[in-house]
C-alpha cells in the first residue's frame, strides 16, 4: 500500500514537472532559463575550482622552494642585498608608509632607519626578526603618534 502511494506521488511529481517544462505557452522560456542558470552555475564552479587549484599549486611550489633552500644552504647566510630585499618586502606588509623606512644589512645584522607609526613598530620588528638570515636588528626608527 505504501509502495503504491509512493509510486503514485512520484508519478504525479514527474507529470507536473513535464507539464511545467513542456507547456506550449511558457515551456520554452522556462527550459531556456533552466539551461542558462545551469550553465552559469557550471562556469562559476569551474572558476572556483580553477582558482583553488592555482592557489594550492602556488603554495606547494613555495613549500618545495623553501625546503630546497633549507636543504641546500643549511648554514649559508644570504647576501646582504638579498637580505635587504627580504626585509623591504616584509616592511611593505606591516608598515603603511614603507618608503619612509631605510634598510641596511651587513652579514645578518639589519639596521632600520626612518619613520613609522607607533602602532606598527612592535609588529614590524617581530616580523623582521623572523626573516631567514636576520641575526639581529638595530632600530633607529622614529615613532609617529
Give me some keywords for this one.
145 residues, alpha+beta, Histidine-containing Protein, Chain: A, three-stranded mixed β-sheet, 3 strands
Strand order of the largest sheet: 1-2-3
- Rg computed from alpha carbons, rounded to a whole number of angstroms: 31 Å
Distance between the termini: 80 Å
Helix content: 55-70%
Counting DSSP H or I runs of 4 or more residues, the number of helices is 4
Summed up, the domain count is 2
Strand content: 15-25%
Structural class: alpha+beta
Order of helices and strands: HHHEEHE
Described by the principal axes of the CA atoms, the overall outline is elongated
Count of strand segments: 3
- Mean pLDDT over all positions: 87
Your description of this structure?
The protein is α+β, with helices and mostly antiparallel strands and 145 residues long. The chain has two domains: 2-68, no CATH class; 80-144, Histidine-containing Protein, Chain: A (2-Layer Sandwich). Helix content is 64%, strand content 17%. It has helices at residues 2-21, 27-72, 80-94, 118-129; strands spanning 101-106, 109-117, 136-144. A three-stranded mixed sheet has the order 1-2-3, with helices on one face. Helix 4 links the parallel strand 2 and strand 3 (136-144). The longest helix has 46 residues, at 27-72. The radius of gyration is 31 Å and the shape is elongated. The model has no long low-confidence stretch (mean pLDDT 87).
Summarize the structure.
The protein is an alpha+beta fold and 145 residues long. The chain is 64% helix and 17% strand.
Describe the SSE topology:
Layout lengths: L1 H20 L5 H46 L7 H15 L6 E6 L2 E9 H12 L6 E9 L1
Parallel strand pairs: 2-3
Antiparallel strand pairs: 1-2
Helix pairs in contact: 3-4
Amino acid at each position: 500500500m505504501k509502495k503504491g502511494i509512493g509510486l503514485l506521488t512520484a508519478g504525479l511529481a514527474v507529470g507536473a514537472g513535464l507539464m511545467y517544462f513542456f507547456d506550449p505557452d511558457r515551456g520554452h522560456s522556462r527550459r531556456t532559463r533552466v539551461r542558462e542558470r545551469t550553465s552559469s552555475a557550471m562556469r562559476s564552479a569551474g572558476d572556483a575550482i580553477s582558482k583553488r587549484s592555482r592557489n594550492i599549486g602556488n603554495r606547494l611550489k613555495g613549500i618545495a622552494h623553501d625546503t630546497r633552500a633549507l636543504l641546500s644552504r643549511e648554514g649559508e647566510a644570504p647576501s646582504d642585498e638579498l637580505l635587504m630585499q627580504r626585509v623591504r618586502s616584509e616592511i611593505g606588509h606591516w608598515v603603511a608608509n614603507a618608503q619612509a623606512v631605510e634598510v641596511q644589512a651587513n652579514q645578518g645584522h639589519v639596521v632600520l632607519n626612518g619613520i613609522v607609526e607607533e602602532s606598527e613598530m612592535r609588529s614590524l620588528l617581530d616580523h623582521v626578526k623572523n626573516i631567514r638570515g636576520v641575526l639581529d636588528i638595530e632600530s633607529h626608527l622614529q615613532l609617529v603618534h
